[in-house]
Amino acid sequence: MPEISLRIEKVRSNMPRLESFAILIGYNTNIYYTTGRYFRGYVYIPGEGEPLWFVIKPQIFEREHNIHFIRKPEEIPGILCELNYLKPNLIALEENELSYSEIIRLRNIFKDSEIADGSGIMKRTRMTKTEWEISEMKEDGMHQTKVYGKVKDCYRPGMSDLELQIEIERKLRLEGSLGVSRVAGNFMEINMGSVISGDNADNPAPYEFTMGGAGVDPSLPVGSDNSVILEGKTVMIDMNGAFNGYQTDMTRVWAIGQVDSLAQKAHDCSIRILRHLEKFSLPGIHVKSMYEEALKIVDEEGLREYFMGHRSQVGFIGHGVGIELNELPVVMAKSRDILQENMTLALEPKFVIPKVGAVGVENTYVVTAEGLENITSFPEEIQYF
């Protein structure tokens, strides 16, 4: 498959230029990225030569010359030897993604090779997208936008934010959503997204999301808390797409009756930030400068107190998005990344206004030579039920 071959070469372009180097992939997201499917097992990518799949489960694939069925990873070195693959002097393992016990096990299997961390290799590789990946994300954006157009029809007077979220989830599933949002990191968990009404927006969560919310149970303290949607309060809807293995990220705001002038000002400021960054964000700029430009506008408007939270504020305004909801680069002051063409970013300059709720817009963009292309095009002004 040409697309998979292209991705493998992207992985190799981020590998050290050594005579005998390989990376062994066992993380779900990276297995999908390098094979176009998911299985339990490993993908072995040498610096030269054909990648190999070591499949533990399910052992139902059509037998191809690069697919080898195993019961345990200890079988891998023997198969490599039988196939006359060079023993790697240096092998990379996904030390930030796999469990400690699995890393120790793999280190023992390859004890004659030097071990490196391969997590960064895969994150850098996935940071820019192929044309096919971008087309998949554009399809996601199209479906997600279609569902957002049905949000008003989901609302009934007197319903809670949780009830509204359930109705939106139903629309997403009927539209074709897979119903799962893959997120990176052991400290990140979410369902199909968040619908946060009124004062719940000021409840901080333990996760690295821009908006928190108390959730409905201590086991998942994020998002809807079953608050009744009230007049004069905002409802921030941040429901994810995930229709084809990739994701787009989009946020819009609804309300019953008019919101106060401060909330409207902050929402308008969010749109102003996005319009500026769409032109400013050209390939070659430092990602951190995008964050700095946003702060300048926030300070001009005198809204720093409410920016990216109120009781608890986060230090970023966006992130990469793709197979996982939170990929590189992170748009923050400490970023060392340079913006590259074909990166896909979710930008979300948001505000929390006490006693009103959250406001602001989030769009998913593709970085092009002319700036940012919005692939989640839906009206950005506050919508009313």
Key structural traits:
six-stranded mixed β-sheet, 17 strands, alpha+beta, about 375 residues, five-stranded antiparallel β-sheet, single chain, elongated
Largest sheet: 6 strands, mixed
- N-to-C span: 47 Å
Summing up helix and strand content along with how strands pair, one would put the structural category as alpha+beta
Give the helices and strands as they follow along the chain: HEHEEEHEHEHHHHEEEHHEEEEEEEE
Strand content: 15-25%
Kindly report the spatial arrangement of strands forming the biggest sheet.
4-3-2-1-5-6
Mean pLDDT: 94
Which helices and strands, and how do they pair?
Elements: H1 2-13, E1 21-25, H2 28-35, E2 40-46, E3 52-57, E4 67-69, H3 76-82, E5 90-93, H4 100-109, E6 114-117, H5 119-127, H6 131-148, H7 151-154, H8 161-175, E7 193-197, E8 234-239, E9 252-255, H9 261-280, H10 287-301, E10 316-320, E11 327-332, E12 344-347, E13 350-353, E14 357-360, E15 363-368, E16 371-374, E17 383-384
Parallel strand pairs: 1-5, 3-4, 5-6, 9-17
Antiparallel strand pairs: 1-2, 2-3, 7-8, 8-9, 10-11, 10-12, 12-15, 13-14, 15-16
Q: How would you sum up this structure, described in words?
A:
With 385 residues, the chain is an alpha+beta fold. The protein is 31% helix and 21% strand. The protein contains 10 helices and 17 strands. It has helices spanning 2-13, 28-35, 76-82, 100-109, 119-127, 131-148, 151-154, 161-175, 261-280, 287-301; strands at 21-25, 40-46, 52-57, 67-69, 90-93, 114-117, 193-197, 234-239, 252-255, 316-320, 327-332, 344-347, 350-353, 357-360, 363-368, 371-374, 383-384. The strands form 4 sheets. A 6-stranded mixed β-sheet has the order 4-3-2-1-5-6. It starts with a helix and ends with a strand. The relative contact order is 0.12.
